[in-house]
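Tutorial, part two.
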Amino acid sequence: MDREEFIEKYIDVLQNLEAAIAEIYGEIPRMTDASVDRALNALIRTYTAEMIGKPVTLMRLDPHEQRLYDRLKEVSDWRLGKGEGIKNEQGELVVISPSGIKTTEEIVECLNHVRRSVGFWSRKAGRQGYLKFISKYV
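Running the prediction step on this input gives:
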């Protein structure tokens, strides 16, 4: 599947992930693309360990990266149909039935896609290039 087909198939999942990243960036405006990359990498490692049945070795993340990791995991678990779901700003559970993701492999592919975007925009526009780019659209 080429890049455009991938985006078309998983657009809603990618938007969910990027909305979560933009939300945390809004709370922590000094966050950098490198922090986003580390949180994504940690989550990819978590799901990969889960897929192969190995114990999860958590990466050491700073508090901002951990906050982002937790939010991305919440969204990803929700998309996988596990976890308690996504809460709104008032802490109320948002009851929306996710669709489109059936396997952990698919969520890992989506996380890797976002991670490649982080690398691209960071190289192109600096240490907050990705964060500033997605903030215009999310």
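The longest helix spans residues 3-27. In part three we will examine how such features are distributed along the chain.
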